[in-house]
């Protein structure tokens, strides 16, 4: 008898033991792509993560601000349940939201810039703690009419504050790279915003802001959001001022341009390898659920990717990467180190010292080559 | 219509404009709903004197926008080079290839060269735009649009030049080029590609057509005797001339030079623009070219490029001052560099 594990229906579970088959048990088009789209009956009903999700319950009105419990066993529950907007064949006629907002969980939001506003379609992350919020990256477009990031962030913060009974929520805006114009353009929208700290762009000033003045690139910095301390890991390689962020609540690594499912343009191959190794050591000492980069260029078939400037990417790979991909990235980075070449891998492509539009006829051994349909 | 369907393509090409005008006024009148417009059909337009016919290019073509979904330009930029010649350009927010497409009007026929890079009418209504141009020209010149035959052809066999062809499938009095090398040659009645130069008579306005392989095998050069514009497709344009086959391309260049040696040419015009006025490369696929170079080039620029090409012995990317010659590099490398490279 296992009293904590109740099976609906009870009775003779021996012949009912679910052996998972998407065709029999679930919807193969399930939006989440979860292995158990109808739930896994072998798991507990009352799991410990539930206590991290009760801070927005509507019973809390007229009380002091909610203090959320950010310490949890394993990653905080959350789900990237929706498909990203992927542009349209005729970009001028696209009517998708300019900023797509997906709530990962109550305290973590992912925003994507519309592919038809800017082809880089960067991802921007908004994380909340008990003492403030952090915006990681700022998108590729400064014009707030075209890309209303500030307006969207303000609205999310307002709603979040109302749910938590908070009025003043200080915001920090940090970039995975200050020089990357695919991620720093939206910054101007936050200039002059009250109660907002913008991490300065110049490398030396940025290092001092994170307390890395003397320990760059081996040390780590911190951004304390209040019981949710985001760690800052120097990861130059694609950009000389590249940093990655670690969120101990969701167990995410935000790697920006350093490691993402797409065309990774290496700025300096020595730094790139070192940073990936530093990232690996870091990930070994902390739980990491997913790596979330700044873009998606890969398609959902291995090794195929969208070229630059595409406004229509209907076959995109998912955003999230598992931490074991760091090992593959290190192996691949070492393979291109010191050589001017590009290297196709199933989940990313490395460009070292070559044009960002470089092409190759070398296809990785053992990877199936699957042609994807053209727009017409 | 019955008359033109009964002649084969070769005799149709050689057909004298004056002869073509007779059956049209004779046989087609019965089919016209508006007898009045047919009865007052004006005298044919003279496309043969005071050549080259004057015309102008716009100071600036539509060239995309920083945010594609906020682009407010028309889907097709229609520019009337002169009253009998329109040049169309696809909006970059509808397709990054944004090809240019001349529309030549004659007394009997209209020739459309190139059909853009979007297939469906609900996405990009090229057919509607061309119909509008034809209506406008007919209104100005007192013609009935139904009396004009439309020829839908393209410079070469690449999808960014024929994608919208099928939008014309249900258009009356229209013929369009097939999507194979054989059908393309057959459309112009060629039997000796690429050397053979055929003359298409639009009704007093003669278009000379010959083979121009090199970028692809199946490509033509088109010369309009009225405006004296030499349309060189994708084998020579203000951008990256992707040369797939060097020898045929070089021979095609030689053929163009021989042509400009013996014929007056006002402008040389390609299908795309992919560089700025200052000679800076706009990388492949970009959708905003704020300072783009003009589409038209001079004969001297063509000659200079040929002189430059004589010095090229190896595959690679060469900037001639006018164009980029990408000799057999398309599948491997490009011009752009990673701006974030550091030591």
Short description:
The complex is a heterodimer of chains A (376) and B (343). Chain A is α/β, with parallel strands linked by helices and 376 residues long.
Structural notes for this entry:
The complex is a heterodimer of chains A (376) and B (343). Chain A is α/β, with parallel strands linked by helices. Chain A is built from five helices and 15 strands. Chain A has helices at 22-25, 149-164, 203-209, 269-285, 325-336, and strands spanning 99-105, 108-113, 123-129, 132-136, 171-174, 196-198, 221-224, 229-234, 243-247, 252-256, 263-266, 290-293, 320-321, 341-344, 349-352. In chain A, the strands form three sheets. Chain A has a six-stranded mixed sheet, covered by helices on one side. Chain A starts with 21 loop residues before the first helix and ends in a 24-residue tail after the last strand. The model of chain A is unreliable at 1-14 (pLDDT under 50). Chain B has one domain (2-27, 56-327): Metallo-beta-lactamase, Chain A (4-Layer Sandwich), CATH 3.60.15. In chain B, a hairpin with a 4-residue loop joins strand 7 (198-201) and strand 8. Chain B has 343 residues and is of the alpha/beta class. In chain B, the strands form three sheets. Chain B has a six-stranded mixed sheet, with helices on one face. In chain B, strands 7-8-9-10-12-13 form a six-stranded mixed sheet. Chain B starts with a helix and ends in a 16-residue tail after the last strand. Chain B is built from nine helices and 15 strands. Mean pLDDT of chain B is 89; it is low at 1-7 and 14-39. The chains are: A alpha/beta (376), B alpha/beta (343).
């Amino acid at each position: 008898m296992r009293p904590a594990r109740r099976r609906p229906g009870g009775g003779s579970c021996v012949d009912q033991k679910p052996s998972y088959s998407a065709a029999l048990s679930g919807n193969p088009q399930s939006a989440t792509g979860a292995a158990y789209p109808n739930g896994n009956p072998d798991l507990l009903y009352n799991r410990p993560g539930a206590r991290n999700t009760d801070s927005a319950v509507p019973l809390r009105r007229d009380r002091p601000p909610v203090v959320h419990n950010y310490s949890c066993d394993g990653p905080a529950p959350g789900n990237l349940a929706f498909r990203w907007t992927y542009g349209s064949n005729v970009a001028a006629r696209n009517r998708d939201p300019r900023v797509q907002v997906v709530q990962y969980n109550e305290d973590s939001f992912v925003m994507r810039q519309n592919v038809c506003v800017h082809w880089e379609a960067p991802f921007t992350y908004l994380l909340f703690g008990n003492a403030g919020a952090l915006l990681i990256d700022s998108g590729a477009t400064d014009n707030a009419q075209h890309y209303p990031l500030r307006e969207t962030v303000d609205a999310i913060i307002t709603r979040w504050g109302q749910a938590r009974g908070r009025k003043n929520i200080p915001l920090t805006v940090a970039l995975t790279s200050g020089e990357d114009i695919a991620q720093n353009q939206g910054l101007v929208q936050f200039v002059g915003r009250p109660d907002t700290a913008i991490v300065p762009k110049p490398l030396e000033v940025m290092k001092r802001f994170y307390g890395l003045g003397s320990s760059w690139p081996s040390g780590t910095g911190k951004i304390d959001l209040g019981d949710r301390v985001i760690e800052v890991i120097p990861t130059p390689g694609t950009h000389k001022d590249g940093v990655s962020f670690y969120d101990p609540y969701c167990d995410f690594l935000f790697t920006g341009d350093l490691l993402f499912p797409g065309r990774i343009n290496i700025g300096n191959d020595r730094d790139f390898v070192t940073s990936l190794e530093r990232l690996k050591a870091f990930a070994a000492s902390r739980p990491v659920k997913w790596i979330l980069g700044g873009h998606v260029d890969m398609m959902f078939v291995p090794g195929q990717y969208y070229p630059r400037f595409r406004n229509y990417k209907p076959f995109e790979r998912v955003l999230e990467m598992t931490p074991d991909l760091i090992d593959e990235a290190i192996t691949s980075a070492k393979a291109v180190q010191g050589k001017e070449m590009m290297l196709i891998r199933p989940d990313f492509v490395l460009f070292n010292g070559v044009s960002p539009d470089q092409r190759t006829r070398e296809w990785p051994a053992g990877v199936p080559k699957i042609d994807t349909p053209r727009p017409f | 219509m019955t008359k033109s369907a009964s002649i084969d393509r070769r005799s149709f090409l050689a057909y004298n404009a004056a002869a073509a005008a007779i059956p049209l006024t004779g046989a087609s009148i019965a089919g016209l709903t508006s007898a009045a417009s047919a009865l007052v059909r004006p005298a044919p337009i003279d496309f043969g004197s005071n050549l080259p016919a004057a015309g102008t290019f716009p100071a600036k073509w539509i060239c995309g926008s920083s945010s594609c979904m906020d682009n407010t330009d028309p889907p097709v930029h229609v520019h009337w080079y002169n009253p009998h010649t329109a040049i169309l350009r696809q909006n970059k927010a509808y397709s990054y290839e944004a090809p240019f497409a001349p529309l030549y009007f004659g007394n009997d026929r209209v020739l459309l060269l190139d059909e853009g890079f979007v297939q469906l009418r609900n996405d990009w209504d090229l057919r509607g735009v061309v119909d509008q141009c034809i209506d406008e020209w007919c209104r100005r010149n007192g013609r009935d649009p139904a009396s004009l035959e439309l020829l839908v052809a393209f410079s070469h066999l690449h999808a960014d030049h024929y994608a919208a062809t099928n939008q014309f499938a249900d258009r009356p009095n229209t013929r369009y080029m097939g999507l194979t090398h054989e059908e393309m040659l057959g459309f112009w009645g060629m039997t000796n590609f690429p050397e053979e130069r055929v003359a298409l008579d639009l009704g007093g306005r003669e278009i000379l057509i010959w083979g121009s392989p090199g970028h692809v095998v199946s490509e033509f050069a088109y010369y309009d005797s009225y405006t004296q514009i030499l349309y060189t497709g994708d084998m020579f344009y203000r951008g990256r001339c992707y040369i797939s086959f060097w020898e045929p391309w070089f021979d095609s260049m030689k053929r163009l030079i021989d042509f400009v040696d013996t014929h007056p040419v006002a402008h040389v015009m390609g299908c795309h623009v992919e560089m700025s006025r200052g000679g800076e490369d706009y990388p492949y696929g970009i959708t905003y070219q704020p300072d783009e170079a003009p589409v038209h080039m001079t004969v001297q620029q063509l000659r200079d490029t040929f002189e430059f090409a004589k010095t090229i012995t190896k595959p690679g990317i060469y900037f001639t001052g006018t164009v980029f010659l990408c000799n057999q590099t398309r599948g491997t490398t490009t011009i752009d560099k990673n701006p974030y490279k550091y030591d």
